[in-house]
């Protein structure tokens, strides 16, 4: 079934096909359309979800995690400040092992307030215990959302899942996309039948205790183990998904990496632009390649090290600032993953695209130009830089 | 909505909040919770929701829970939203034939989690109309973190953030009238009550709230021996004094109609309530008579207003 949809509509459509038990709804640009589309499905009787129009994202996540604890499958969508407002509850959902599914439409975080895309919101939530899967385009946004539930609800995992897509770029642009039939979707995601839940008649349950020191750490270790277990499950679900869709997904996508000497590592919609740059350079005989990270939590460290093992120079492209004074979050992960390699490529970090700042094919070509120089000279120059910002002189 | 109250019969019901929880001796919260839960019909199940508070940390310390019913705690400021989520799940699963029987949803939160940080979440849940009972047990301060003032703390009360010193005289501001705020939500049932005497009032209000469809709210006075600084054994007496001085009048508002639940035979002076409590000790120092006068005037004024509203 082919269709022309925006990313938001694609995700809302996936939600409709899932027909979740509960949805928490609160508007924030650019994810607002998701609860709007869903409201029309509710109004038209196309779903019979309990649609809870909360008074804030804080309550949206509270509703979703509590519904999940009660035995229901719950979903919601948000962006930016909305995700930030949920922050405390993101931890609660993960530590209570409640597999809520959240569509995060990535947007910059205040301040100054800005509604355009970068990854500051979800990167800020990277250590909350949520699985994070990022989409490059509308098709992936749809596909990832459908894979989220079979991943998160698996007993060995039982973690909440955030599927991320780039605000406006993906959420609002119309693309051709392949939709699955609803009965195929239903069969793929199955029923949500948790072992224990608040509403279970035979077995009252208590959730969210005061956890004393003799137990707390054990619970955190179990959570960490669940995140490790998620890696295999993500690949298993991807394989099952390939069977019904013909579309294959891994922890990351390698683009022309077979013999690449110069490579980029990045996340999200910029991959399309970067691929165009790689193609151009390849025409000129330059061995350029790209690794597009799809799964950021759990982080595919070992796999990424292997993928980059034979490169000479790598630029990590961070679409969020971490203010670590030492590079962005993707850079920190990538550099750490490469540490165990006997021979490591040279590595630089480029922070780009903050607050919706555009990135073009030529920009990526420039990055590859820098990598080519580094590969020859062995001199990285400044390791951590920002790309695309106006110079001080221009601003003045 | 009413129930015939038979104390003997009620206390013979199995406790839904077990003994052995870790609340202090002389604490009102435990008896409020067990009193409210006792109002559930025996055959009905409940999910109890709790905000972070003294109650929460003392009744569900992993791996032990004091609740016989299902229970969830998620955070300090979101107990009403958490309860909304459980209720939403119930509606969805019921519709889909996945749960059986009647389940009731009861939230317990302190005054900090209700008057202050959780007010938005509470207001949202009440406005949306979830079928639930929200019980605020009002001990007039943040007790769990060590007796800091809340917007439920009465004027002049000494707390760790409103200490009495050479210039400071305890809390400067009034107590927020939360019960009235809830009445303004036009929900089916709001009541102010306390675990007093043979528990009839608490029981009846709780029963009404639990068995009225839609969002219902109970504000329940819940003294704290540590924060109020009274000997644990005087709990029942302190509550009685709060009610008989009209510091904490008992009333209900059903579908917008105000009704007094209790009229003291003899309205006692406010000092009777203030005197046994260490938190008001400085009010009795020489030169501070004006504080007691102000406290009395404020109680009288509110009581008059309540009499007008209830047509009593
Ligand atoms: C967001 C947040 N802020 C602060 C706290 C710390 N905290 C936990 S319980 C509490 C006070 C609870 O007071 P109240 O609701 O009146 O209940 P009580 O302890 O008096 O029974 C506070 C401040 C918290 N858990 N979460």
From TrEMBL, chain A:
Keywords: Oxidoreductase, Pyruvate. The keyword Oxidoreductase applies. One of its GO terms (biological process) is response to oxidative stress. It holds the Pfam family PFOR_II. It comes from Pelotomaculum schinkii. The keyword Oxidoreductase applies. GO terms for molecular function: pyruvate synthase activity. Belongs to the pyruvate:ferredoxin/flavodoxin oxidoreductase family. Its EC number is 1.2.7.1. Residues 14-237 form the Pyruvate flavodoxin/ferredoxin oxidoreductase pyrimidine binding domain. This is Pyruvate synthase subunit PorA. Residues 260-364 form the Pyruvate:ferredoxin oxidoreductase core domain. Transmembrane segments: none annotated.
Automatic annotation (TrEMBL), chain B:
Gene3D superfamilies: 3.40.50.970. Residues 61-220 form the Thiamine pyrophosphate enzyme TPP-binding domain. Keywords: Oxidoreductase, Pyruvate. Its EC number is 1.2.7.1. It comes from the Bacteria. GO terms for molecular function: pyruvate synthase activity; thiamine pyrophosphate binding. Transmembrane segments: none annotated. PANTHER family: PYRUVATE SYNTHASE SUBUNIT PORB. This is Pyruvate synthase subunit PorB. It comes from Pelotomaculum schinkii.
